[in-house]
Amino acid sequence: MDKISEQTNSNDTNEFQLNTSKNGKETNPVNKNPEINKTQQSEDTLLHLFLHCGHFLHHRKGNHHGQERILSILQKNNAMIQRDLQDFAQIQSASLSELLIKLEENGSIIRKKNEKDKRNINVILTDHGQALAQKSGKRSHQEAIQLFNVLTNEEKEMLQHILQKLFIHWSNHCPQNKNSEHRYR
Protein backbone atom coordinates (compact mmCIF):
# COMPACT_ATOMS: atom_id res chain seq x y z
CA MET A 1 0.00 0.00 0.00
CA ASP A 2 1.33 3.46 -0.90
CA LYS A 3 0.96 6.52 1.25
CA ILE A 4 2.31 10.03 1.28
CA SER A 5 3.43 11.14 4.68
CA GLU A 6 4.11 14.74 5.53
CA GLN A 7 7.24 15.29 7.54
CA THR A 8 8.64 18.49 8.97
CA ASN A 9 12.34 19.15 8.48
CA SER A 10 14.59 21.17 10.75
CA ASN A 11 13.75 24.43 8.93
CA ASP A 12 10.07 23.93 9.80
CA THR A 13 9.05 23.65 6.13
CA ASN A 14 7.00 20.80 4.78
CA GLU A 15 8.80 18.00 2.96
CA PHE A 16 6.85 15.19 1.33
CA GLN A 17 8.27 11.71 1.07
CA LEU A 18 6.71 8.57 -0.34
CA ASN A 19 6.84 5.45 1.76
CA THR A 20 5.97 2.17 0.11
CA SER A 21 5.08 -0.69 2.42
CA LYS A 22 5.78 -4.14 0.98
CA ASN A 23 5.64 -7.21 3.20
CA GLY A 24 5.61 -4.93 6.23
CA LYS A 25 8.80 -3.11 5.26
CA GLU A 26 8.89 0.61 4.61
CA THR A 27 10.94 1.78 1.64
CA ASN A 28 11.63 5.32 0.52
CA PRO A 29 12.56 6.58 -2.96
CA VAL A 30 15.11 8.93 -1.42
CA ASN A 31 18.45 7.13 -1.40
CA LYS A 32 19.96 7.47 2.09
CA ASN A 33 23.47 6.72 0.76
CA PRO A 34 25.65 9.78 1.58
CA GLU A 35 27.64 9.18 -1.63
CA ILE A 36 24.59 10.01 -3.72
CA ASN A 37 24.26 13.76 -4.08
CA LYS A 38 21.15 15.70 -3.13
CA THR A 39 20.36 16.53 -6.77
CA GLN A 40 20.14 12.88 -7.70
CA GLN A 41 18.03 12.18 -4.60
CA SER A 42 15.72 15.02 -5.55
CA GLU A 43 15.43 13.81 -9.16
CA ASP A 44 14.73 10.24 -8.03
CA THR A 45 12.06 11.48 -5.63
CA LEU A 46 10.46 13.64 -8.35
CA LEU A 47 10.32 10.70 -10.75
CA HIS A 48 8.80 8.49 -8.07
CA LEU A 49 6.18 11.14 -7.26
CA PHE A 50 5.39 11.61 -10.97
CA LEU A 51 4.86 7.88 -11.37
CA HIS A 52 2.54 7.76 -8.36
CA CYS A 53 0.58 10.81 -9.54
CA GLY A 54 0.29 9.35 -13.05
CA HIS A 55 -0.89 6.03 -11.64
CA PHE A 56 -3.42 7.77 -9.40
CA LEU A 57 -4.82 9.89 -12.25
CA HIS A 58 -4.90 6.98 -14.70
CA HIS A 59 -6.96 4.82 -12.37
CA ARG A 60 -9.17 7.71 -11.27
CA LYS A 61 -10.33 8.33 -14.85
CA GLY A 62 -11.76 4.84 -15.25
CA ASN A 63 -12.49 2.75 -18.32
CA HIS A 64 -14.17 5.39 -20.49
CA HIS A 65 -11.40 7.99 -20.51
CA GLY A 66 -10.55 7.29 -24.17
CA GLN A 67 -14.14 7.75 -25.29
CA GLU A 68 -14.51 10.93 -23.24
CA ARG A 69 -11.29 12.30 -24.71
CA ILE A 70 -12.48 11.66 -28.28
CA LEU A 71 -15.84 13.31 -27.52
CA SER A 72 -14.03 16.31 -26.03
CA ILE A 73 -11.77 16.66 -29.08
CA LEU A 74 -14.75 16.45 -31.43
CA GLN A 75 -16.69 18.98 -29.35
CA LYS A 76 -13.84 21.48 -29.65
CA ASN A 77 -13.12 20.83 -33.33
CA ASN A 78 -16.56 19.98 -34.75
CA ALA A 79 -16.48 17.25 -37.38
CA MET A 80 -13.05 15.86 -38.15
CA ILE A 81 -11.57 13.53 -40.71
CA GLN A 82 -10.80 10.26 -38.93
CA ARG A 83 -7.10 10.43 -39.84
CA ASP A 84 -6.84 13.99 -38.45
CA LEU A 85 -8.58 12.85 -35.27
CA GLN A 86 -6.07 10.01 -34.95
CA ASP A 87 -3.14 12.40 -35.41
CA PHE A 88 -4.56 14.91 -32.95
CA ALA A 89 -5.36 12.27 -30.32
CA GLN A 90 -1.95 10.63 -30.78
CA ILE A 91 -3.32 7.08 -30.76
CA GLN A 92 -2.96 4.07 -33.02
CA SER A 93 -5.42 3.55 -35.87
CA ALA A 94 -6.77 0.30 -34.40
CA SER A 95 -7.31 1.92 -30.99
CA LEU A 96 -9.19 4.84 -32.51
CA SER A 97 -11.30 2.49 -34.63
CA GLU A 98 -12.27 0.53 -31.53
CA LEU A 99 -13.25 3.72 -29.69
CA LEU A 100 -15.22 5.02 -32.67
CA ILE A 101 -17.13 1.74 -33.02
CA LYS A 102 -18.21 1.98 -29.37
CA LEU A 103 -19.14 5.66 -29.73
CA GLU A 104 -21.08 4.93 -32.92
CA GLU A 105 -22.92 2.02 -31.28
CA ASN A 106 -24.06 4.20 -28.37
CA GLY A 107 -25.18 6.98 -30.72
CA SER A 108 -22.50 9.54 -29.78
CA ILE A 109 -21.02 9.90 -33.27
CA ILE A 110 -21.75 9.13 -36.87
CA ARG A 111 -19.18 8.41 -39.57
CA LYS A 112 -19.73 9.49 -43.17
CA LYS A 113 -17.60 9.38 -46.28
CA ASN A 114 -16.09 12.77 -47.03
CA GLU A 115 -17.87 14.37 -50.02
CA LYS A 116 -14.67 15.94 -51.39
CA ASP A 117 -12.43 12.91 -50.93
CA LYS A 118 -14.17 9.55 -50.71
CA ARG A 119 -11.01 8.01 -49.18
CA ASN A 120 -11.58 10.02 -46.02
CA ILE A 121 -14.20 9.47 -43.34
CA ASN A 122 -15.75 12.36 -41.40
CA VAL A 123 -16.43 11.75 -37.72
CA ILE A 124 -19.36 13.85 -36.55
CA LEU A 125 -20.62 14.39 -33.01
CA THR A 126 -24.37 13.75 -32.60
CA ASP A 127 -26.63 15.64 -30.20
CA HIS A 128 -26.30 12.69 -27.81
CA GLY A 129 -22.51 12.86 -28.13
CA GLN A 130 -22.59 16.61 -27.56
CA ALA A 131 -24.58 16.10 -24.35
CA LEU A 132 -22.14 13.42 -23.15
CA ALA A 133 -19.16 15.66 -23.97
CA GLN A 134 -20.68 18.53 -21.99
CA LYS A 135 -21.45 16.25 -19.03
CA SER A 136 -17.93 14.81 -19.15
CA GLY A 137 -16.43 18.30 -19.39
CA LYS A 138 -18.31 19.46 -16.31
CA ARG A 139 -17.30 16.33 -14.40
CA SER A 140 -13.68 16.80 -15.47
CA HIS A 141 -13.73 20.44 -14.36
CA GLN A 142 -15.15 19.50 -10.95
CA GLU A 143 -12.49 16.82 -10.62
CA ALA A 144 -9.76 19.36 -11.46
CA ILE A 145 -11.09 21.68 -8.76
CA GLN A 146 -11.07 18.84 -6.25
CA LEU A 147 -7.58 17.66 -7.21
CA PHE A 148 -5.94 21.09 -7.15
CA ASN A 149 -7.85 22.94 -4.42
CA VAL A 150 -4.95 22.29 -2.04
CA LEU A 151 -2.80 24.68 -4.12
CA THR A 152 -2.91 28.47 -4.11
CA ASN A 153 -3.46 30.25 -7.43
CA GLU A 154 0.24 31.14 -7.49
CA GLU A 155 1.20 27.48 -6.92
CA LYS A 156 -1.18 26.37 -9.69
CA GLU A 157 0.39 28.84 -12.13
CA MET A 158 3.88 27.74 -11.08
CA LEU A 159 2.97 24.05 -11.46
CA GLN A 160 1.44 24.69 -14.88
CA HIS A 161 4.59 26.52 -16.02
CA ILE A 162 6.87 23.77 -14.70
CA LEU A 163 4.81 20.97 -16.27
CA GLN A 164 4.70 22.76 -19.64
CA LYS A 165 8.46 23.30 -19.48
CA LEU A 166 9.02 19.62 -18.67
CA PHE A 167 6.67 18.44 -21.40
CA ILE A 168 8.36 20.57 -24.06
CA HIS A 169 11.79 19.39 -22.91
CA TRP A 170 10.70 15.74 -22.88
CA SER A 171 9.02 16.14 -26.29
CA ASN A 172 12.24 17.41 -27.80
CA HIS A 173 14.20 14.47 -26.42
CA CYS A 174 11.69 11.74 -27.23
CA PRO A 175 11.02 11.71 -31.00
CA GLN A 176 7.84 9.64 -30.66
CA ASN A 177 6.24 12.46 -28.62
CA LYS A 178 7.15 15.48 -30.76
CA ASN A 179 3.70 15.78 -32.38
CA SER A 180 1.79 15.71 -29.08
CA GLU A 181 3.05 19.09 -27.84
CA HIS A 182 0.07 21.00 -29.30
CA ARG A 183 -2.38 19.21 -27.00
CA TYR A 184 -0.96 20.75 -23.86
CA ARG A 185 -0.39 24.37 -24.74
> Which regions are unreliable across 5 or more consecutive residues at pLDDT < 50?
1-18, 177-185
Q: Mean pLDDT, rounded to whole units?
A: 80
Number of domains: 3
| CATH evolutionary superfamily of the largest domain | Winged helix-like DNA-binding domain superfamily/Winged helix DNA-binding domain
Task: Report the helical percentage.
Answer: 40-55%
Count of individual beta strands: 6
Work out the radius of gyration.
21 Å
Q: In sequence order, what are the helices and strands, one letter per element?
A: EEEHHEHHEEHH
Question: What is the CATH third-level topology name of the largest domain?
Answer: Arc Repressor Mutant, subunit A
* CATH first level of the largest domain: Mainly Alpha
Question: Main sheet?
Answer: 3 strands, antiparallel
Based on helices, strands and strand pairing, what is the structural class? alpha+beta
Q: Helical segment tally?
A: 6
- Main sheet: strand order: 1-2-3
Shape assignment: elongated
Describe the overall structure.
The relative contact order is 0.08. The longest helix is centred in the first third of the chain and has 24 residues, at 38-61. Strand 5 (109-113) and strand 6 form a beta hairpin. The protein has 185 residues and is an alpha+beta fold. The protein has helices at 38-61, 65-77, 82-89, 93-105, 127-148, 153-173, and strands spanning 2-8, 14-22, 25-27, 80-81, 109-113, 121-125. It contains 6 helices and 6 strands. It folds into 3 domains: 1-61, no CATH class; 65-137, Winged helix-like DNA-binding domain superfamily/Winged helix DNA-binding domain (Arc Repressor Mutant, subunit A), CATH 1.10.10; 151-185. The radius of gyration is 21 Å and the shape is elongated. The strands form 2 sheets. Strands 1-2-3 form a 3-stranded antiparallel beta sheet, with helices on one face. Residues 1-18 and 177-185 have low confidence and may be disordered.
